[in-house]
Specification:
Length: 226
């Protein structure tokens, strides 16, 4: 069950195809919102919490802020953010980052070009190819991943495939049969502080480089041509 945030929570209407055309002629509808995008609320039988549903065959371009749970069966190119305890299920395709303060994230479809941060748990049974997955609870991988995994507990299932880096704070389990190419690190408090310092230094260096480049248009022109 998912939530959404924005000036008008019912401002976006996602239409569903009345009939499914032949696959070779099928062109999904495209919806674009440069600002915040709100999906349609749906009440599930027997459930109190409302669910935002982005139906299969729909395409959204733009960032989405939610206050209810979200179920994505379509496609989104943009970031999904919740400042509430919203659960997010990706059954379709998401190209962007996901951030939910206290909810869970479930990747059953595909996610790329972004990070995941969840105040609860993260489950990847589909495919994640991006930057970083960080959960305050537990990360379970039963599908495919590439990137960084960071959590208190990490469980890798026997069907999992992946490569990258794995950082755990308390517990890790890798089932027999899993095919993982990754550096595995136990995070201590000292290591976490070191990582923060390194990250700040990298961000500062990148900012200084951008400032220097912007202040020298000739150099900028040469770099852009090269």
């Amino acid at each position: 069950m998912f939530k959404k945030q924005g000036p008008n929570m019912n401002s976006l209407k996602v239409e569903k195809e009345k009939e499914s055309p032949p696959a070779e002629n099928y062109q999904p509808k495209i919806y674009e919102k440069i600002a915040h995008t709100q999906a349609r609320d749906r009440v599930e039988p027997g459930q109190k919490k409302r669910v935002n549903a982005i139906v299969k065959g729909s395409r959204l371009a733009g960032d989405i802020n939610i206050t209810y749970d979200l179920e994505l069966d379509g496609e989104v190119e943009g970031n999904i953010t919740s400042t509430e305890d919203s659960n997010i299920i990706i059954k379709g395709n998401c190209r962007g980052s996901i951030n939910t303060r206290g909810g869970n994230v479930n990747i059953e479809g595909e996610m790329s070009n972004g990070d995941i941060f969840a105040g609860g748990d993260v489950k990847i049974s589909g495919k994640f190819s991006g930057g970083k997955v960080e959960a305050r609870g537990k990360i379970y991988v039963g599908g495919e991943f590439s990137g960084k995994l960071i959590s208190n507990e990490i469980e890798i299932g026997q069907e999992a495939r992946g490569k990258g880096e794995i950082f755990y704070k308390e517990f890790i389990s890798i089932a027999k049969g899993a095919k993982i190419e990754a550096n595995i690190t136990l995070l201590t408090e000292d290591q976490k502080e070191i990582k923060k310092i390194i990250k700040k230094a990298e961000d500062r260096k990148e900012t200084d480089q951008k400032k220097e480049l912007n202040s020298n248009p000739v150099e900028q022109l040469i770099l852009s041509r090269g």
